[in-house]
Design brief:
Radius of gyration: 20 Å
Number of helices: 13
Structural class: alpha/beta
Length: about 400
């Protein structure tokens, strides 16, 4: 099996555009949640979202190219541009069929569908934008990234709801491990803070009704009552180790293991005992050849819904045994809300930055302990400590469970 390392990172998030600004926001405990800006929420119970504010695609992408992309694709391209610049990869020196893209979107562009449907109803089918189909299709984030950089290898849009970003990274890891590709731009993106998107999750009673941004996304707190819709993108450059070394790339961390399972239980509710999610964590650790007591940090899925946080806690206990009470856990969603497909990728970037900086951020807003969520969720203040091994969990509707393990790179 070939070793796989991370040589570049890019992010578009509600607390900062670019990894540097994102991590600054993490260090400041910045909460990127506020009143929904995209539409009038008068008739909605859910009033808050975690949106990417002040994003102008023309600041990053040539005007004509930006016009051929909807918002989620723009996010993906901007994150990929940062990751590519960070990696220093010179495509002209590569076999482009050995360069892949695996950037998933859970829903594509709901806002684009709404926009064109409004035109259809108001003015008839002749007024629908001629590029509507390629603007809104979920695969177009990956396709636009591939076109931007001329990557002609495998190009995939993995779709596993909220596990999409983590599954995309895991599958890219496997492709490089098995020698199919040398480099993959991997991650996830979504932008679905739309009338229909919010209405559907509200109908499921999955969204918080809190109107206080600091008390809305509060994973593992006994007051939690739903998640906050978010948007954004995370993209990482995954690269075969010898390929990276040959070109003198800087190496941030090593992807050590990947686990994926399915609850095969219910369309929205996870398995109550956490057995399948726990198995994904166990698989990732076994894949990496590490034991539970060697894992320093878990970036939890931690959505701030009653059942997710409880069942993920049970899953961690199943996978880690006694070590569950010793490992540091947090949820980045306490600051960035639920970015859907983008969440897993940005949360893995958080794990890597934690390894590089020796810092585990707090679960911001966690104040009141839930007796059934009794692990160390980094309540109060962040922790300055060495982080050698970290795992990132993502759990999606339909019972999709994904875990990626990342570790300090040691030659």
């Amino acid at each position: 099996m070939k070793r796989v390392v991370v040589t570049g990172m890019g992010a578009v998030t509600p607390i900062g555009i670019g990894v540097k600004e994102f991590w600054k926001g993490i260090m400041e405990n910045r909460v990127g949640i506020g009143p929904i800006q995209n539409f009038d929420t008068t008739e909605y119970k859910a009033k808050l979202s975690a949106e990417v504010r002040d994003f102008d695609p023309k600041d990053y992408i040539e005007f004509k190219a930006a016009k051929r992309m909807d918002r989620f694709s723009q996010f993906a391209v901007v994150a990929a541009m940062e990751a590519m610049a960070d990696s220093g990869l010179d495509v002209s020196k590569e076999d482009v069929y050995r360069l892949g893209v695996e950037i998933g979107s859970g829903v594509g562009s709901l806002m684009g569908i709404e926009r064109e449907y409004d035109k259809l109803l108001a003015k008839g089918p002749s007024r629908v934008h001629p590029l509507s189909a390629p603007l809104v299709l979920g695969n177009m984030a990956a396709a636009n990234v591939a076109m931007t950089f001329g990557f002609r290898g495998k190009c995939l849009d993995v779709v596993t709801a909220c596990a999409t970003g983590t599954n995309s990274i895991g599958e890219a890891f496997r492709n490089i491990q098995h020698g199919e590709l040398d480099v993959v731009l991997a991650g996830g993106v979504d932008s679905s803070v739309s009338r229909f998107g919010v209405a559907t999750f509200q109908a499921l009673t999955a969204l918080t009704t809190s109107e206080d941004p600091l008390c809305a996304s509060i994973p593992f707190d006994k007051r939690r009552n739903g998640f906050v819709t978010g948007e954004g993108a995370g993209v990482l450059v995954l690269e075969e180790l010898e390929h990276a070394k040959k070109r003198g790339a800087k190496i941030y961390a090593e992807i050590g293991g990947y686990g994926a399972t399915c609850d095969a239980h219910h369309v929205t509710t996870p398995l109550e005992d956490g057995s399948a999610a726990g198995r994904a964590m166990t698989m990732a650790m076994e894949d990496a050849g590490v034991t539970p007591d060697q894992v320093d940090y878990i970036n939890a899925h931690g959505t701030s819904t009653v059942y997710n946080d409880l069942y993920e806690t049970r899953a961690i206990k199943r996978a880690f045994g006694d070590a569950a009470y010793k490992v540091h856990i947090n949820s980045t969603k306490s600051m960035i809300g639920h970015m859907f497909a983008g969440g897993g990728a940005v949360e893995l970037i958080t794990c890597i930055e934690s390894i590089l900086n020796g810092y585990i951020h707090p679960t911001v807003g966690l104040k009141e302990d839930d007796p059934e969520c009794d692990l160390d969720y980094t309540k109060g203040e962040g922790i300055h400590t060495d982080v050698h091994v970290a795992i990132s969990n993502s759990l999606g509707f339909g019972g999709h469970n994904a875990t990626v393990l990342v570790k300090e790179y040691i030659e």
